Amino acid sequence: MARYFTDEHEWIDVEGDTATVGITDYAQEQLGDIVFVELPDVGAMLEKGKDAAVVESVKAASDVYAPITGEVTEANDALEEDPALVNTSPEEEGWFFKLTIGDRDEMEGLMDLKAYKAFVDEL
Amino acid sequence: MRYLPLTDTDRSDMLATIGADTIDDLFSDVPEEARLDGPIRGLPMHASEMAVEKHMRLLSKKNLAASDAAFFLGAGAYKHHVPASVDHIIQRGEFLTAYTPYQPEIAQGTLQMLFEFQTQVARLYGCAVANASMYDGSTACWEAVAMAGRVTKRSRAVLSGALHPHYAEVVKTMAKFTGDTIAGASPSIQPEPDTAGLIARIDDDTSCVVVQYPDILGRVNDLNEIADAAHAKGALLVVVNTEPVALGALKAPGDMGADIVVGEGQSIGVGLQFGGPYLGLFAVRDPKHVRQMPGRLCGETTDAEGKRGFVLTLSTREQHIRREKATSNICTNSGLCALAFSVHMTLLGEKGLRQLAAENHRLACLAADKLAAIPGVEVLNTAFFNEFTITVKTDARAMVRKLADKNVLAGVSLARLFPNVDTLSSRLLVAVTETTSEADIETLCSALKEELS
Amino acid sequence: MKAPNKSGWKPSMQSDDGMQSGPATNSGNRALMLEEPLLFEIGNTDMTGVDLPEIDPSATTRMGGLERVDSIGLAGLSEPETVRHYTRLSRQNYAIDLGLFPLGSCTMKHNPRLNEKVARMPGFADVHPLQPVDTVRGALEVINELAHWLIDLTGMHGVAMSPKAGAHGELCGMLCIRAALEARGDARKVVLCPESAHGTNPATAAFAGYTTEDIPAGKDGRVDLEALKARLGPDIAAVMITNPNTCGLFERDMKAISDAVHAAGGFVYCDGANFNAIVGKVRPGDLGVDAMHINLHKTFSTPHGGGGPGSGPVVLSEALSPYGPLPYTARTKDGVVHLVEEEQADAFSEEHSDGKMQSFGRMTAFHGQMGMFTRALTYMLSHGADGLRQVAEDAVLNANYVLRSLEDLLHAPYADSGPCMHEALFGDKGFGDDLSTLDLAKGMIDEGYHPMTVYFPLVVHGAMLVEPTETESKTALDQFIASFRSVAQRANAGDASLKQAPYYAPRRRLDETQAARKPVLAYREQSPPAGKPTLSEQGGS
Fold first, then answer.
1. What is residue C536's predicted lDDT score, i.e. its pLDDT?
2. Domain boundaries, chain A
3. CB C471, CB B3: distance < 8 Å
4. Chain C residues with beta carbon closer than 8 angstroms to that of B304
5. Neighbour tally for B117: CB within 10 Å
6. Which CATH number fits domain C390-517: 3.40.190.10, 3.30.70.2740, 3.90.1150.10, 3.40.50.1980?
7. Max CA-CA distance within chain C?
């Protein structure tokens, strides 16, 4: 399994033809207490770079963009009940959604952990 | 100028502190050619309190106050008695001159009041959650249509022909710009609403069905059938109520399957005021729809010492955070009108509201019977609350104008409400409230008799 | 996501460290600071504060068998209890009547009580919107007289009076623009707004069917004219600009901006939220504005009422005036003021304006916020043309006085570029470790002030926007400045006690995260102690 990062602070785990997407620890730290996550419907077609989900803290709502193109196969329903999971376990239990990988070429240009760390350090 | 506390000495001291020579130095960013060199010509100079009051009183005298007439107008705005303590409380400076409660530690008065208001409205409407109010009933109606579109992801709204025509106009105006389709209809002038006809217009693309209850002709009917039909097609039922007093006697829309209930709250605590400011009420039956609601919401929480307190919440729906993706561009609510509503509702309580509703209905029944006994007058409705439609054997609109000269404001002619429907000239909408005396009813009846004889 | 949390505000800034303040009392009250239970905890469904006839259970009804049988659950109180409940609640509010209320962009000025008296005259307060026109001539004259003032003060061509609040007025203006574009068959799609704009601007543009794009700002806090010009083209329907802008600065290039937008075929919408800074000094019409809403509750002092009602008439240029909403009033040559509704619209337009009027439709059920019109007109007549000019001058003077009295202590991002208008803007640069704008704001509460606007505009980190208004005396300003300086010094020095402020307000910091995660939006009865019925179980009637 490989993990990639975007410069919009999403992480993507790739396993076979499926990718799991969430937001990074850095992003949740910046947002503060998450109070609500709006997830895409299963079956929705997402397009790379377009709105996929919304994550809300008390006074900010941020769009989460689809890091790659694909069809949503699963959404993390646990976040509906307990949005705080995004704070406590952003890169594991607080995942957002899974989607099929439409075009592997889109993975190009995504960062690995080291590159993302360097990117965040620059901010 | 009595409202401006700075003296000329203050002004020059302050300019010195700032490091400016003249006040105009502070306007140096304004291009020279755009600066006015003195008071705008053609407008009067400042005036004393006494002089201004006199001017305004003369203007006010050119209007016929409802209380100075035998008064029977309704159609979305109703004359009710407002207890003196309501106006006293809304003039307390801590309510009158406070801002939106964005700093909750020093706005618990407004916030707790809004929480109580939301609870009162939700219960009155038979709903789970109500917001902290909208501009008025007509804009709340449009907001409900827009919300139904977000929930169902559809864009065709079906309006009952017996929806207040001004509300329908507001919805149609807004829909022109949002691209929604609005299926309107003309009112069917029958003793009972045309439920079958309305249901037949619901299709698989329908986001919501909008019905008024009691409707614009004053008729009331069971909404369960419409709710079932809407839900079977995946559409929401939006119910509009323009007379909240009615819900002290009539089943609540939320208890008959309405998904969104909106309305005008003016009847409780807010005077007629020539149409505004009024009070838009907005509630949803199912709490899962809360995040799609427009407008402010007040919620309960605790403070750092564990004490109960209230805050504005779920504000990520709103324009100041969501900007172009907000559920609505609404920024204000009708805070002070919501306070007036809440105080009046507290004075009434359930007991008083039920008594008030019963008294309205009793007098309306009395008026309907007396009017029906006049040759040339027929009462259309089989069922009504405090407003009903009559047919007169003359041009109702001309008659209303004529009777106004005799201090009888006989009602709202349907021809005024529906100028594009040409079969309504003999119809008149008559509203009766607890402020209507039996003598007023007699006055109306004799005036009609005289007109029609 | 893009730049998460630009403003810098975080819920974790709310601290949960309590501080003991004297011994606890049995009641929970602290002398004049009185705790007040919820209405539903002290009232019940059988109590009422009005005297109405008992219901006759034998009376026949004609409600189609739809009688409401189940309890509604509406708690009532007697009149003395009602007055006390709300009076106690009122004392937990800050208000202009209590002190300086420096909320930037909100314009919390004194609300003259004559306005309240006038609005309550029976000829205004007790008039139905659908009365025959001959019985409401005075009301129509008020609307028309106020319209006349607004047109003269702004140098514009027409005014739409019916919008119910500022944001509703914005919508009205944008709908006029869209109607005008459609009338010439021009389907432009994009509206430009500066990043510093009020949130209502992009929300309104979206509601009117447009996509929005940011206008770049220059280093001086103003629109970057060259960048704007570069973006203009056949797809731009309108540019929305606030002037004076939300940084409290006058857009010096406004006329050039308007000219450029017009040359590119677009319209200029001006957010008039800050008109109070320039009323009587500058007319937006002279700057090329096509539409501007006026918040009567800001510039013309109608009360904010804890969040409304507002009123948002929109002044319009000659190009947009024909498209304004119905109903409207118009005075004809014979001196008569007419009420024009759907019914008369076409004929009236033919007879009096060569058929030019092509209203986009109705925005609200009736004629707008009459109760606000009477108040605003009273305010204008009291001030007169000379007094209103003085209003703008004193508002700007007071704001500059605050700016120059704090700039040595606080980061004032645009102070070097010249005077501000009616509000002074500061940022959080220079605060001690871990201290934020929110902490400073809460410290101001303990000093007895409502805080300034915080975290707005978004273009300045930890923004604090201070608008003293013209109705503050120099003494009041000096006291406020002394408090502000004291709290700012504590913030700069890293005084950790600020993190728990306020200490002396009716409530300590409230947990907004809890409120949003598990929303409780209506009162629910707790399970009752044995033998005690809940409110909803008590009989209704």
1. 44
2. 2-101
3. yes
4. 14-18, 500, 508-511
5. 29
6. 3.90.1150.10
7. 80
Give SS3 for B400.
Answer: helix
Does any CB of chain B come closer than 8 Å to the CB of residue C105?
no
Q: Alpha-carbon distance B333 to B134, whole Å?
A: 5
CA torsion, ordered C98, C102, C106, C109, to nearest 10 deg:
50
Phi, psi of B324 (to 5 degrees): -65, -10
**B312 contacts in chain A (CB < 8 Å):** none
CATH class of the A2-101 domain in this structure? mainly beta
ipTM, 2 decimals?
A: 0.97
What is the longest distance spanned by two Cα atoms in chain B? 83
The answer to whether the peptide bond before residue B277 is cis (omega within 30 degrees of 0) is: yes
d(C-alpha C146, C-alpha C112), whole Å: 17
Residue with tokens 């004609």: C62
Residues of chain B numbered 4-63 and touching chain A (CB < 8 Å): none
Is the per-residue pLDDT at C356 higher than 90? Answer: no
The verdict on C118 touching B (C-beta cutoff 8 Å) is yes
Decide if B323 touches A, using CB distance below 8 A. no
Integer Cα distance of A59 and A73 in angstroms: 30
Mean pLDDT, residues C498-520 taken together: 95
Residue A66 corresponds to which tokens in the numbers above?
Answer: 């689809």
Residue contact B401–C116, C-beta within 8 A: no
**Residues in chain C, overall count:** 541
Q: Cβ of C361 under 8 Å from any chain B Cβ?
A: yes
Chains in touch with C (3+ beta-carbon pairs under 8 Å) read A, B
Q: Which helix (H) or strand (E) holds B310?
A: strand B308-312
Give the architecture-level CATH label for domain C115-375.
3-Layer(aba) Sandwich (3.40)
Q: Which residue in C has a C-alpha nearest to residue A67's C-alpha?
A: C1
Query: Distance (Å, rounded) from C-alpha C88 to C-alpha C91?
Result: 5
Taken in order of first residue, the domains within chain B and their CATH numbers are 66-81+350-452 (3.90.1150.10), 84-344 (3.40.640.10)
List of residues 6+ apart from C409 with CB closer than 8 A = C485, C488, C489, C492
Q: What is residue C394's predicted lDDT score, i.e. its pLDDT?
A: 98
Give percent above pLDDT 90 in chain B.
92
Q: Where are the domains positioned within chain C?
A: 115-375, 390-517
What are the strands, taking DSSP E only, across B303-452? Answer: 308-312, 377-379, 387-392, 408-409, 412-413, 427-431
